[in-house]
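S1.2 Input.
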Amino acid sequence: MMLPRASDALLELIRAHDTAGVDAMLDADPVQRTHGGPGGETLVLYACYTGATDVAPLLRGARPYDACEAAALGDLHALNEALDRDADLISRRSSDGWTPLHLAGFFGRDECAAFLIDNGAPLDALSTNAIRNTPLHAALAGATNPTLVRRLIFAGADVESRGENGIQPLHLAASRGDQALCDLLIARGADPHAAMDDGTTPAKLAESRGFKELAEKLTAKAET
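S1.3 Output.
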């Protein structure tokens, strides 16, 4: 369930990393801690999305971080505590549609990702939002921590899973210009011919982003 949107003034203070302003506003109106960002996410997640993690403790207040927030923040202790309270949280979505493993992946939190995988987090869970992607997509679309991406792949994540507009992990690695991850994905079964819904191949995407050498290599692989 999406949360009611917090005031624009509070959201602006969060984006500005204005801890004093956030503290004063929440002191005057504590109920805003139960509101969320523009996408229905908790304010803690909104702070993560906008790079204002320093404000997160104020937004949390006296409650503990939930599993999604802990994963996004890279707080392994808080993540462990959240799952101790309720083991089912490992696969439960945030109010804006992400599992903890999606968020650990997107923010490059490898230690949290390893913990989640070891405890049975679903590798191929689709986000329940318009993006409809997997944790592997999220890891490649976000921080692209190579260690974490490899961890997901070797744990068995589907390298040909399709997200919004038919995008596959290889498209995302190509868009980053990451030759090593492209090679690994192909070695694990990703199809270099793979096309998005509009016909875009990984090679075309790499070329459009200025990675000409990678585009040529992907084209050559597709022709073999």
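S1.4 Remarks. The chain has a mean pLDDT of 96.
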